[in-house]
Design a protein that fits this description.
This is Mannose-1-phosphate guanylyltransferase. By secondary structure, this protein is an alpha/beta fold. It has a single domain, classed as 3 Solenoid (UDP N-Acetylglucosamine Acyltransferase, domain 1). It is 27% helix and 18% strand.
């Protein structure tokens, strides 16, 4: 189902640059299945020790953001320590300290040289990308919201 983009009247009135509102049926069974799969992948990632083998941590991250990938193409994990020792190497997956909570994951793109600290929550959608580039440092308890929910106030 295509997304519907709507501008915020308040933002236009104030002269702000607005991110379009993304509307999608979150209760749809397909979207619910993707959300449930991502929740399970996040639980598995969060239960992986921080000092676990880099290959395992990388695969657990990719299970969140690229669940349908061809696992034979994962290749060896390049850790951030290795990139400092050899600048010609490039990390494929970010260094993420658990716990991390992501709603869908499939449209989340994070640069391999990015660091995400503990308790990051990303409220993403299955219909719009969230892109976090290379070399970003995301502090603890950060919340990234890529969706706007409609609220009805009394």
């Amino acid at each position: 189902m295509p997304s519907r983009l709507v501008s915020s009247e308040a933002g236009e009135h104030l002269g702000e640059t607005c991110v379009p509102e993304v509307v999608f049926p979150a209760g749809n069974s397909d979207f619910r299945a993707v959300r449930n799969r991502c929740a399970q992948a996040c639980r598995e990632f969060n239960n992986t020790p921080e000092d676990a083998d880099p290959e395992m941590r990388s695969q657990k991250w990719l299970d969140i953001v690229r669940p349908d990938r061809d696992r034979s193409e994962d290749g060896p994990a390049v850790t951030h320590d290795l990139t400092f020792a050899n600048p010609s190497l490039k990390a494929k997956t970010p260094f993420v300290k658990p716990p991390v909570w992501i709603d869908y994951g499939v449209r989340l793109h994070v640069g391999g040289s990015t660091f995400i600290n503990r308790d990051c929550k990303i409220m993403d959608t299955p219909v719009a990308d969230i892109v976090i580039g290379e070399g970003c440092n995301i502090g603890p308890n950060c919340v990234i919201v890529g969706v706007k929910r409609k609220w009805r106030l009394p």
